[in-house]
User: Fold these one by one.
Assistant:
Number 1:
Amino acid sequence: MEKARESYNKGNFKETIRLLKDFEKNGLDRYESLMLLGHSYFYMHKGKEAVRSFSEALSASPESKEAALFLGKSYNMIGKRNDAIEAFRDALKIDPEYKDALINLGVTLAELANQDEAEGVFKQITEKFPDEKRGWYNLGLVNFHKKNYSDSEGCFKRAIELDPEFTEAQYNLAAVYCVTGNDALFSEYVEKIKGKNARLAKMLVGACNKERKKLKR
């Protein structure tokens, strides 16, 4: 097991999988072996194999919130959003305060266009973890999609307060200013983004021009 751990910590996932191939025959700990296998497959973007490993790990240790979380992430990797939601909810049954499970649950709900339920999850995150930038950022995205631009602006601003270099939040705050016609603040944030990523700033201006043409129709 020690060799497998060392291999995994070095990022040598193929070797980790090789070493753990016959873990049961070799008398290695079932849960730890399956978790190492699951993580190795996950980081190699082999979603189906990761799902199998994390599912078996959860069966071996039903109280493992980490196994449930990564089972959900692995389901997302292969496009099985509803199964992912169920796994994230299982993780939250184990630990209702599990921040990563809450964030992944909210993001997956939003991806399924279930904006109202996603909003409820992200509000829960901002209440429980007010210094978690991802909660505010994703709540901002939900409000943006619902065209609640004032609320969206406040959320993105809070995310940027928590991380002044949060480029994604700056980009989406600029998008708010684009659709609300605040040219001065839009230009200000374009310049901020341009200083870090000129290509992204150009994409932002292009997207804004396209959106404004649609609004004029």
Note: Residues 198-216 form the longest helix (19 residues).
Number 2:
Amino acid sequence: MGSTEDFQLIKNIDIAKLDEKPTVVIVPKGEMKLMRTVEDELPDEPIERVEELVRKGYRSFEFVDKSKLFGIGNNDGIIKEIAKRFQDREFIIGGGIKDLKDVEKVMGYSPNDNIYPLIGSAATDRYLESKQRFSSFIQYCIRASDGRLIVSVDDAIGPDGKRTIRRQYTTRTPLLTDEYIRALAGVGVFNIKYTGVSAAARGGERGPDIEGLKALPEKERFNKIIYAGGVTLDSLLELYKNGANGAIFGSGVPIMTTAQKARRYLSRRRRVTC
């Protein structure tokens, strides 16, 4: 993911099969019934979209296989093809990664060190079932990924005012965010993706969940804290000031201006890669 001195701009690409073809999609509020194609100037075909983004200078991408996540097939073939074709780019790959075999499979997509497997509910579920099982699973995954494992932390404020982890973005769990973050740090996780679920559901209308990011404990124990959810161009400096060293942009951020604005905001503090 680059050195910790870089603030990275990571372009999200969600993929699902529509009419049996791998297609770039958007899934509002994480609900499958709302899934649709992305309405922007880029191609819906995943390889063509990546080619266009690479031409615009983007170096880091997040792929989420929505088909696999929702249990309606997979897009392994197209994601593997992209990772092999663009070995000088970095790819966070998630969506339906459930066990060690899935992590090992994703790591095999490219011979280079450009793959970062992303796990979410697979880790949360194990923690809620058995902390010992969770610890063993995470440590195996860290070794299998050469330390490049990223664990997704999705949280939101509940009716009781407490921040708790969301499972697969939408389902509330009893697990307190602070407790989970400390558990991840305790078993040696180096990288997390923190999503402010409430902010993501708003689609960036009021910006990211800065308060949630600010409240994360033990930030110094992670190499990477990548923020997602409601990211806007104007929020990059605040994300940086509050501990993030990367941000994931969805389809709502203008392609051409992202890197330019980010550099203007952050160039005096850090080198920015995209």
Note: The chain has one domain: 8-266.
